[in-house]
Amino acid sequence: MEEVGTGLLDRLDAMQRVAASAPGGPLLIVAGPGTGKTRTLTHRIAYLCAEMHVFPEQCLAITFTRRAAEELRERLKALLGPVSGDVTVSTFHALALSLLREQDKSLVIAETPDAHGVTLDDLVPRLVKLLRAKPDLAHSLRNRWRWVFVDEYQDVDEDQYELLRLLVPADGNLCAIGDPDQAIYSFRGADVQYFLRFAKDFTDARLVRLTRNYRSSAPIIAAAVQAIAPTSLVPGRRLDPAKVDPEAPLIGRYAAGSAAEEAEFIARTVDELVGGVSHRSKADTRGVQSVTVSFTDVAVLYRTDAQAATIVDALQRAGIPVQKRSHDRLRDRPAVSAIAAEMRLAQGDEPNLISRMKQAAQVLAERPALDSTLSPEDLWAAVDLLTPLARRCEKAGLETFLTELATGAEVDALDPRAEAVTLLTLHAAKGLEFPVVFLAGCENGLLPLRLPGAATRLTPDEQTAAEAEERRLFFVGITRAQRRLYLTHAAKRFRYGSEREASPTPFLDTIDAGLLEWLGDTAPVRRRDQQLRLL
Ligand code: ATP
Ligand code: MG
C-alpha cells in the first residue's frame, strides 16, 4: 500500500497536485497524452477520502471501458487500501444497468431491439428518461454520490452527458478529465462539444491544465505536437517533455515498396532491437548478451485490422512471438450466452460461481444434439474464457458476473506481461504506452482512412471533420511511444481486392524533417527533393 497521509500527493508534480487537491465544485482537467491523467484522478479521490473527510461511498468514478475501470480500482486500492472498495467505479453502461435494476429487478439485456429486455445501447438513454420522469430518484442519487469523476471525458456522447447533468447539480462536485485532441469515437456518437460545454453548464468551473508529459522522449513529443497542430482543439496546446535525454533517438521513417516489405522491415527491426532472435537464444544459454529491449516492450499499431495479417506473418516467420488484441465481446459467443442463461435459471450455490458455471456447461453438453447446436468443445472453451471473469466476480456474486458479461466483458487475450510483440488498432491503443512503437501504414487513404464512396456520401464539412478525427488518431498513435517510434508506409498495398498505389500520409508533412531519420536503403523521391532544396 502506498503511503497515506501527508505524503499522499508527493508523487505528483505541482500542477497535478493543484488538480488533485482542488476544492469541491465543477473541475475540468484538460490534460494531454502522458501527462498522468489516471494518476491525478486516483490521487484526487484518495486525497479527498484520506484527508478531506469525504466518505468513499460518496464517490462515483466513471470510465468507458471495463479494463479502464479495473485499472482505476487497482490504483485506488494501492492508494487507499481496502476502503477503496466503497468507491463506486463503473463504466457508463454498467452504472446504468445497475441503477435500472434497482428499479426493476427482472430487467435483462436483450440481444436485439425487438427481443429476451433492454439493449446495451439503450441502457443510458433509458436511465436518463427514468431520472427525468422521477426527479425524486435523481435527487436521491445526487445525495448518494456527492463526488463524481469521469475519465476520458472527451468521449462522452449526448446521453452520457445528460446522465451526468442529472447526477450532478450545476454547482456540484463533478471532476471531468480528458483530452479533446484524443477524441476518436465520433463514429459511436461521442461529441467533443460536450467537453467545450462543461464550462457553460457547470457554474464557476475550475480549469486545470497538465502539460508535462512523463511518457515520451522530446523528439516524439515535438512530432506529436506538430502533427496535431493544424486541427488541435486545445487552444495553445502545450506538451513539455519531463525527461531530458540528449541521447534520445530520432523518429524512424521507412518507405517500403509494398505492405509485405513494410512488414519485413518491422520484423527485421524488432529482431535487431531485441538483439537478434537467433543470436539471443544462443547468447542466453551462455548468459553473456544483455538484452535491453524485450518483445513485451514493442507494439505495432495500425488503422485497420486488415493490415494485421501481413505483419503477423512476417513476425512469425522471423520467430518473433506475437499477441493481438481481440475485440470480440464475450457475450457474442453463443456458448457463452447459453451458459449465462443456464446459470441464471439454475438454483445453486450463489458464491461459488465457477462450479455453477461448470454445472451449466455440463447440463448444456448433455442436452440432445437436436436441442442444442453447441458442441461440448464450444461449451468447455466458453468455460475457459469465462473463468477469469468468474474469478473476479466471485465475491460480488452472480448478478455482478452477469452484468459484467452483458455490459461488455471482452475476450481479451492481451497480457501486458506476455513475452510477445503486441499488435493493436489505433483505437484499441488509447491510454496504453510502450517503449517501442511502430505505426504502420502511414498512407494517404489509410491514415486518414477514406472508404470508397465517402466523397459522395459525406458533405464537405463532414469530410473535414472525419479527416480531423483521423489526425487525432495519428496523434494518439505517436503518443503511445516512450522512446522509439517508427513511422512506416508502403508504395503499394492490396485494398478492396486489388493492389493499389499509395503515397505517404499528408499528416507527415507537418512534422519537422529534422525530427525524422530515414531508414533503409530505399531512396524515396521526397528525400531527394529535400536534398535538392538544401543544395
Ligand atoms: P493518455 O492520454 O495517453 O491516456 P495519461 O494522461 O492518462 O495519458 P498516464 O498513462 O496516467 O497518462 O501517465 C503516463 C506515464 O507517466 C505513466 O507511466 C505514469 O506513471 C507517468 N507519470 C505520470 N505522472 C508522473 C509523475 N508526476 N512522476 C513520474 N511519472 C509520472
Ligand atoms: Mg490515460
How would you describe the overall organization of this protein?
There is one protein chain. The chain has a seven-stranded parallel beta sheet with strand order 11-12-10-13-14-9-17. A six-stranded parallel beta sheet has the order 3-2-4-5-1-6, sandwiched between helices. A two-stranded parallel ribbon has the order 7-8. The termini are far apart. Helix 2 (37-51) packs across helix 3, helix 13 (334-345) packs across helix 14 and helix 14 (353-366) runs antiparallel to helix 15. The chain is 41% helix and 15% strand. The protein is built from 19 helices and 17 strands. The chain is globular. It has three domains: 6-210, Rossmann fold (3-Layer(aba) Sandwich); 218-326 and 413-534, 3-Layer(aba) Sandwich (Rossmann fold), CATH 3.40.50; 330-406, no CATH class. The protein is an alpha/beta fold and 535 residues long. Strand 4, helix 7 and strand 5 form a beta-alpha-beta unit. Adenosine-5'-triphosphate binds at residues 12-13, 16, 31, 33-39, 179, 182, 214-215, 431, 433, 479.
Short description:
With 535 residues, this protein is α/β, with parallel strands linked by helices.
Task: Find the structural class using helix and strand composition.
Answer: alpha/beta
CATH superfamily of the largest domain, by name, is P-loop containing nucleotide triphosphate hydrolases
Tell me the CATH topology of the largest domain: Rossmann fold
Q: Please provide the count of β strands.
A: 17
Which percent bin holds the helix content?
A: 40-55%
| Cofactors, ions, other ligands | adenosine-5'-triphosphate, magnesium ion
**What is the topology, as strand order, of the major beta sheet?**
11-12-10-13-14-9-17
Beta-sheet strand percentage?
5-15%
Mean pLDDT: 87
